[in-house]
Amino acid sequence: MTWFDYIRRAVRAEPSLRECIVRTFLAVAVPTLMRWAIDRGASGSPFVLYFPAIQMITTFLGWRWGAATALGSGVAGTMILMHPGCVPPSTLPEFVVLVLFALSAGTMVFVGQLLRSSILENAKRARQIEDFNSELQHRTKNALQMVRALASQAAKATDPAEFYEKLAGRLGALAKANELLRFGARKSCDIDEIVKGAMAPFGGEQIRAGGPPCQVAGNACTPLMMALHELGTNAHKYGALSRPGGRIDLRWHIVGNREVELVWTESGGPPVSPPTHRGLGSRLMTAQGGMPKVMVEYRPEGVVCTIRALLDPRDES
Fold it and tell me: Structure pTM?
């Protein structure tokens, strides 16, 4: 560990109020005693030894404690070193010395705070990069697992061309989900973006969607995008979107403060009957990750699907 690592750790530490008071007191007392031991402030400027202490306190504790150190140093230097016996300064040169000390101390506080802010900002960015890399690895792993699961259905496909069309559509939805997440840079995504991205391939004239604004948790974005895309694909081939008069109504509302519930309702399409076998999209229409509930009802008048997804806990909308 280098000396800079020790400094960075000290700057990032959060000492208690008592520790801050003690450190500030020592930052004033130690230079005062040192100067008193040297010449009792009889020659030169009595404030020289205070400047390093002011900057160090500002760097490690912040500008408020640095300002308190500067104020205490000014009082101690004036009342103990310049005029023992607590006699206030009375001559012009003494006032000039005090003004110069105030300007210099202010500069030390400014420089110390600037250094502290730079160290804290660098530490924050380092943490963000670590979090980003961790999230990127996690999302890449999940994406590869989903691609593997989709590709594994190839052996069951009876029509290679149809399978390729389905796979291409699902990979496109997966890519769109990752785009919404900015590959891990964002911890959540807007539900309007998810719905628009999933429904974009099917047009918007027959689809009505709406609900309160909210942010979906990161681990729910990709499953929700894929599920909605699967519903749209099925509706386009077999359901409401396969006829000009068909309609899809997609509404969502907040459940408690942790989940959003989406209800997909089809109408005006051909009569619906439950599927007789589990196809390529069945795996996408199951509870997973941040999507704890998926319930599909094959009503004669149209498919109704209820999905619940986790909300970003930081969302205050």
Answer: 0.50
